[in-house]
Design goal:
This protein has 488 residues and is mainly alpha-helical. It has 20 helices and five strands.
């Protein structure tokens, strides 16, 4: 794209405007999300009924994201969609700023801008994080926060940097347990890198350790008393086989999982790596890497050690499937490392144009799918909720074989599990058929049908015109329930 060549890029001009650009972009993403639907998608719906400031929740994740959702709900008057979008997109904006500011502090304005635009070529950032994910974006922020605290330390921030290091470590531990793979990899890489080892590991590291221990100890203790609740769900997902890898599923060794990990890592960061390598091909001679060589070594070693440790775990535990989001903390330094190792001159202008296009096309693509496809958060939950309330307005616990169905309906009705409890149960399922046995098994043992099966057919809430049918039936306890308000 020689036609895009021009005068030398004024990196300082871009760097000064980067924070405001990030803020404007996040505000626009928030507006798009709120305009597309007032219902929750799958990852958002998991928090309904799980925002009571517990130490452990049933989703096998640490509790910090749930707490953030609860705080947002209190601030927005329990507007679920606004609260969930606000938390996720604010964290996404924080990720972008931390990536930019970390690289800028480590290697100057050019590195900061190149690191920021590198995220445009990371699908889990530019695409997935604007429409779904929850704990993943928080653990990404924590991992980049660790690197940002290193940048502060390298610039002489002293005790402040150690305090931030401990805080980000605590946030990561309270965000998602795979953060520990990143943290341990980072610390091992720091030990192997002499100048950083001397700077990081001195008496002031106790500031970080004490902050981390104070924040994480209650969750660690609670997890010891309920280890299956804290971890079982994640392990089950690692054991799910991948169809196209079944042919190499060997007994007692996770070879298929190992290849799944390689594929996921390539999909996570391979495109960004290729774009940055290709971008340098027009530069002769190619510019030297930016920043301190020890920092570049640290970031690369962190990624390689993390990948190696995760691969060893998958092989020895005979796991079968590694999703891209599981790689998030391990590959979090990718954008910063690319900016430092592959600075651009002629290729930089092309990267700026391509990144701008990606940042614009991603939300447009998301909006297109939501407006003309049939994503789950456009299902006619309002029509179903109105029918349930019209049949019997007394609150009941909503149960469904899909958690996002139950969550959306309960939030629209303001019934459990959104908040409170109820003796009656409303069973909801999709289609005209009878409810599945596994759905009926979720009913309490002492309930009896209190209404006939009712079916509601309505169009999805976008321009596709597709019809969706839901069925529901109310169940009540045969035993009388005492009035909870008696006695004041």
């Amino acid at each position: 794209m020689a036609s895009l060549d021009g005068p030398e890029i004024n990196w300082a001009w871009f760097a000064r405007r980067a924070p405001r650009t990030i803020a404007v972009y996040i505000i626009l993403l928030l507006a798009v999300r709120l305009l597309l639907s007032r219902f929750m998608e799958i990852d958002e719906a998991q928090f309904v009924g799980a925002v009571d400031f517990s130490w452990i929740y049933g989703n096998s994740h640490p509790p910090l994201y749930n707490w953030l959702v609860r705080l947002a709900l209190e601030l927005t008057g329990w507007n679920w969609v606004l609260s969930l979008a606000l938390v996720r997109l604010s964290l996404l904006g924080l990720y972008h700023w931390l990536v930019f500011d970390s690289a800028r502090r480590l290697a100057g304005d050019r590195a900061g801008v190149l690191a920021l635009i590198a995220s445009a070529f990371l699908p889990q950032i530019v695409w997935m994080s604007i429409q779904t994910t929850a704990h993943t974006v928080l653990v990404l922020v924590a991992a980049i926060g660790i690197i940002h605290s290193l940048a502060l330390l390298r610039s002489g921030a002293g005790n402040v940097a150690y305090a931030w290091f401990g805080l980000w470590a605590a946030i990561g531990a309270l965000a998602k347990y795979n953060f520990f793979i990143f943290l341990i990899s980072f610390l091992v890489a720091a030990v192997l890198t002499s100048s950083i080892r001397r700077q990081l590991f001195n008496r002031r590291i106790w500031i970080s350790i004490l902050i981390f221990m104070a924040a994480f100890a209650p969750v660690a203790i609670a997890s010891l008393y309920a280890p299956l609740t804290a971890t079982a769900g994640r392990m089950v997902k690692l054991n799910q086989p991948v169809d196209y890898l079944n042919v190499i599923d060997l007994p007692h060794i996770g070879l298929d999982g190992f290849l799944s990990l390689i594929v996921s890592a390539a999909l996570w960061s391979g495109w960004a790596f290729a774009v940055y390598v290709i971008g340098r091909t027009r530069d002769h001679p190619r510019p030297a890497a930016d920043g301190d060589e020890d920092v570049r070594k640290l970031l690369l070693r962190t990624i390689l050690i993390g990948l190696g440790a995760f691969a060893l775990l998958v092989l020895l535990a005979d796991y079968h499937s590694v999703a891209q989001r599981y790689m998030a903390p391990i590959l979090a330094p990718t954008a910063i490392l690319l900016a430092l190792r592959f600075p651009q001159v002629l290729g930089a202008r092309n990267l700026l144009i391509l990144a701008a296009c990606m940042f614009v096309l991603a939300p447009l693509g998301f909006a297109g799918v939501a407006l003309f496809g049939t994503p789950r958060f456009t299902f006619p939950f309002d029509a179903i909720s109105s029918a349930i309330r019209g049949q019997n307005p007394a609150p009941a616990t909503v149960i469904s074989n899909r958690q996002d169905d139950a969550a959306n309906i309960s939030v629209l009705l303001h019934w459990p599990p959104e908040r409170g409890t109820a003796s009656d149960v409303v069973l909801v399922w999709q289609g005209n058929d009878a409810p599945a046995e596994n759905l009926l098994a979720q009913l309490p043992a002492n309930v009896l049908p209190a209404s006939p099966v009712t079916r509601v057919t309505a169009p999805v809430r976008n321009f596709s015109g597709e019809l969706r049918t839901f069925s529901f039936q109310r169940f009540s306890s045969p035993s009388p329930v005492s009035d909870q308000n008696n006695g004041g």
